[in-house]
Each structure stands twice: as C-alpha cells, then as structure tokens.
Amino acid sequence: MEVGVVCIPDDEDLNRFRRLVDTTDGWTVRYNKNNIKVWVQNISEKEAASTRIRMLKTVNVMNDVSAPLAYDVLHDPEYRKEWDKHMIEGKEICMLNPNNDISYYSLKCPTPMKNRDFVTQRTWLETDREYLIFNHSVFHKDLPPKKGLIRGESILTGYLVRPKGKNSCELFYVTQSDPKGSVPKWAVNKVAQIVAPSVMKTLHKACLRYPKWKSTHNPGFKPWLYPEQAMGYLPRLNMEDLLAKQEYQSDDSLDETGMKEEDFNDSNLLAEDKVL
C-alpha cells in the first residue's frame, strides 16, 4: 500500500500490519500506565532527517470490553459523532468492495496547531482470531482541500483488536501520519505521544457506553459486518474520480511557523484533549 494508490490489500499488506503490531524490536516505550502502553519506532539519524514523524503504536488492555464490541465502536460512523469530540466531520464517500471504502475525516487539533483533514482508503477484516482496520491517504476529485484546513497524509494508520477472553480484549493502534503544513517536526511527534493515551482512554469509555446507545439507534444496521448492507450503503468507486498526488494543493496560508516548545507542554495538550 502506498499513499495515493487505491487497490485491494493482499495478504502481505495484512501481514505487514500485523508485524508492526507484534514486534517490539526497534521500538522504545514512552508511556506505560493503567493498561495502556505507547511505543515510538527507533530510527537512524539519516532516517530522522528525511521523515517528519516517527511511527507510533499504542495498546490498551480492556478487561471489560469484548473484541467484537470494540470493533463495532471503531466502525460505527453515527456513534463516532457521540464520542469523538475532536471530529469536525466524518463520512464515507464510496466503496471498492464490502471491505474497502474511501472516507473523509476532519478534526480539531490541539492549540496552537491548525485543524486538519484526511481522505483515506480504509480496509477492514474480521478473522477467527482478530479484527483489523487500517487506512492510507488517497486523492479523490470530489474531496479537494477546504479553506481553513490543512490536508494531512496518512502513510499508514490502523487498529487491530484481539480477544483475551469472552469479555476482554487488546486494542492496538498504529500510526504514521504527516500533518503537512508548517508545524515543526518535534511538535508533531510530541503531540502524538501525549494525545495517544488519552484517546485510548476515551475509546474505552465509548465501548462501555455503546451497547445502550446502539440499542436505540438502528441496532440491526452494521454494514461493516453484513456485506448485503454494505452493498446498498455506498456508491461504487468510479476509478476516473481518483487523482494523482501532484494535482492537490492544501491551504498553505495557515501559518504554524511561530510555534514554541512551551506551547506544547503536557498539561496544555491534555487540557485541550479532555473534551474527547
């Protein structure tokens, strides 16, 4: 999978994502508290000079949430409006097949960063031992950059959920996303490492509330589980609607070059993130 390339992932793509989840060699733990652990990937000085953001991964061991429940919460677009208070807008645009779609997501970023949006191809899969959801950025003519938002780029972002028992699971999150714009590299990595644990805590709370919410909000509608619902839910992708990366321009008028490291202290970021 490559940024800008729309295709159905193969077994090697799935296995690559699993390896990122499972390996600990070449990763450093940056947070380990209350069943949540955060790693950042070690990179060489040469690699650090050529990339804006390190890959990050998080695991949350949820002893009171089943794997199928966590998978539903990660998928349900209507419920996300209830728990994701950073989301400005989120919607599915079209589908490649019942396990792949193209989606749009815009979010409110922690001050002093400007708000971002993303257009991604999203893939999901349920197996007898795990649930996977991951995405990468693509380019669609009906989703040009919007004024007031910086178009970010997901190199690879996703979740993997594994059951630990009937009512417990491990929720993994892996991401390497470039926010673009002029935000300094050090700020990108600092924000990611601070916000990740808070997001995992928010997801845990959302999982606990979901059964009651879903019971009164179209409880039988889960197109991520039932292909017959998915086929009638979204239009098919028209390959002529896809664009090459070089045709895209983002809102470069949003200047972030004046950021200072004191703007990114942990307390300010967590105060900003508490609305999640």
TrEMBL record:
Residues 250-276 are annotated as: Disordered. SMART domains: START (SM00234). Its main location: other. Residues 25-212 form the START domain. The keyword Cell inner membrane does not apply. GO terms for molecular function: lipid binding. This is START domain-containing protein 10. It comes from Strongylocentrotus purpuratus (Purple sea urchin).
